[in-house]
Design brief:
Elements (H helix, E strand, L loop, with lengths): L1 H18 L2 E2 L3 E2 L3 E2 L7 E8 L3 E5 L9 E8 L6 E6 L1 H13 L11 E4 L4 E8 L7 E4 L11 E4 L3
Parallel strand pairs: 4-6
Antiparallel strand pairs: 1-2, 3-9, 4-5, 6-9, 7-8, 7-10, 10-11
Length: 155
């Protein structure tokens, strides 16, 4: 029993890093947390209960080195999240969310969890080359599968 509890605690301790695609040194394979003075543009994101994201203005292509402020709001009745990542990190995030469906992302700078009516800001610097583009996703149970993800080219 004691070893099972220790294993669970260890899994919880590493889960934010695993879910965000981090590796040794705390750097993400698809960028890093940005700083407000370096923001090059702001994109408003609405997480919709129709399992879509609404962007204003459209995200379009992201330039390598660009720092974007995402102002994310949840006007609906369901809990949502907004996660930034490449394909590998989003797959890892999805697997972790399946194991821990109620997981919150307070320590993950690339993901925000939003209760109905909540808004949060996420600033991200896209300073690393990625294969296959950037994926913006919600991994609340069933949301990604219902279409709540968007792929964006990183140039």
């Amino acid at each position: 029993m004691k070893s099972r509890v220790l294993a669970m605690l260890a899994a919880l301790a590493i889960s934010p890093a695993f879910a965000s695609g981090s590796h040794a040194g705390g750097h993400d394979s698809f960028g890093q947390p940005g700083r407000a003075p370096d923001v090059t543009r702001t994109v408003k994101v609405r997480t919709l209960d129709t399992m879509k994201f609404e962007f204003e203005p459209a995200v379009g292509k992201i330039r390598k080195g660009e720092t974007i402020r995402f102002v994310v709001s949840n006007p609906g009745q369901l809990t949502h999240e907004f996660a930034i990542g490449d394909a590998a990190s989003q797959q890892a995030h999805a697997q972790m969310m399946q194991k821990m469906p109620g997981m919150q992302h307070d320590g993950d700078p690339g993901t925000v969890s939003l209760a109905p009516g909540q808004s949060k800001t996420l600033i991200w610097k896209f300073d690393r080359a990625v294969t296959g583009g950037i994926i913006l996703a919600c991994h609340v149970a069933g949301h990604y599968e219902a279409g709540m993800h968007t792929k964006v080219d990183l140039k």
